[in-house]
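Annex B. Sample input.
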Amino acid sequence: MLKLIQRTFTALSMTLLLLATSWAQAAAENPKDFVQRISTELTTRLVKERAAYKKDPQLLYSIVQENIEPYVDFTGFAKGVMGQFYRQATDKQRTDFTATFKQSLIRTYANGLGAYENEKFTVKPYVAGDDPKKAQVDMDIQTSSGSIVPVTYQMVQDTQGQWRVRNLILNGINLGLTFRNQFSSTVEANHNNLDKAIANFVPSAGEVKKDIK
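Annex B, continued. Sample output.
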C-alpha cells in the first residue's frame, strides 16, 4: 500500500511539473511583444509623473528601477562586462560587481530618460534565430529633432521561460562591449586589484549620448 501511495505521489508530481513547464512556455511572450510592453509601460509612466520627477530626481531613479529591474538579466549582463576577470573573481567579488553594475546601469538609464519628451518609438518585427532561448529585437526611436536612433535588445529566457534583457546596442554602440572595455581599463588603473576596480568602476554611456541629437 505504501509503495502504491509513493508511486501515485511521484506520478502526480511529474504531471504537475510537466504542466508547470508547459504553462511557463505558453506564457512566454513573443520577444517583440515583450519589448513593446516594457517600453510602453516605462514611457507611459514617464509622461504621467514628469512634473513630479522634475522636482525630485530620486523619483526618476525609482521609476526607472521599478520598470527596468524585473526585465534585465543583471547577473548575465555583469558577467559579460567583467569578461576575463569573471573567472579570476571570487563569489563575493562577482556579487559586489553585479550590485555596483546594476546601480550604475539604472542610474545611466535614469540620466538618459530625464530628458524624455514624448519621443516616438517603433518596435520592428521579430525574426527568430537558431537558438529559441535567445532573441534580438530592433527598435527605432525618433528624437524630438526628427532623427532616428536604432536600438537593439539582446535577450535570453530565464528558467521560467520569461525574457530578460542581456545587452543593448544603442545607435550602433554595443553597451556590453563598451562597459567591458571600461572595466578592463579600470582594473589596469587599479594595478589589477579587483576589489578596488569594482569599487571604483562607473560605466559610462557618455559617448553614446553625444551621438544622439
